Amino acid sequence: MPLPPSTATLGGSHSTGKANVQEREIDIATADGAMNTFIVHPDEGGPHPVVLFYMDAPGKREELHDMARRISTVGYYVMLPNLYYRRVREFVMAPDRREEMFGHMNALSNAMVCEDTQALLAHADHDAAARGGPVACVGYCMSGPFVFAAAAAFPERVAAAASLHGVRLYSEAADSPHLDAHKVRGELYFGCAETDEWAPPEMIEGLDAHLQSVGANYRIEWYPGTHHGFVFPQREAMYHKAAAERHWEVLFDLFRRNL
């Protein structure tokens, strides 16, 4: 079913020192409303392979925009949607808003994000700057299961999916993403913090055993000396620069192999 045209709300160019990129903020129409989405890609050499960037629980924000820009500078068309758009257009995290954050997070489901993914792909397929064909997904924390679910829901499109300190990857929930792992055709990567109360070793061990049993193409990597959230520079207590830089190397290798 054709989607209504998206509406651009902000546009411009941005120089990173490595390459100039084009960026804009648009509304992508879905069955549930307008999903405000940040898009960034190099301003030359297109069309570019698509990378879908799913936010973590604190929401779509400038810190993530900068991470999307970093991905774009090596040659990708990056889409970063506000997954909370059904409830709020903009969520600004603060110490006294953790309960609200968990409310937004728990209101999401893998199925809802897969519906959003379909809308993102439909938009990209009509943008001359975006290359058709295989795409990659990357998600952090709460979005670990979302990239896993998207890889299973769109096996013909998602060639690579990366979860960094992802939660709820293997559970007894009826919609646990591991239950559809046999549908995944792309390459899966799971980067795990050494100490993570949200993704304990027993969860990862169960995931590992299940992925082996279904013959998935996957890799699980532990990052020594890290805690949940180690890739985010603005989380001073958790940020681990060496591990964060390692994750960028892994991501870019994953994308190069598959896109």
**What is the CATH topology descriptor?**
Rossmann fold
**Secondary-structure element series:** EEEEHEHHEHEEHEH
Low-confidence stretches: 1-10, 13-18
| Structural classification | alpha/beta
Q: Strand order of the main beta sheet, please? A: 1-2-3-5-4-6-7-8-9
Strand content: 25-35%
Number of domains: 1
The chain-level mean pLDDT equals 92
What is the helix tally?
A: 6
CATH class: Alpha Beta
In whole angstroms, how far apart are the ends?
Answer: 27 Å
Total count of strands: 9
Percent range of helical residues: 25-40%
Bulk shape: globular
Rg on CA atoms, Å:
17 Å
Instruction: Assign the CATH superfamily.
Output: Alpha/Beta hydrolase fold, catalytic domain
Question: Any descriptors?
Answer:
alpha/beta, Rossmann fold, 6 helices
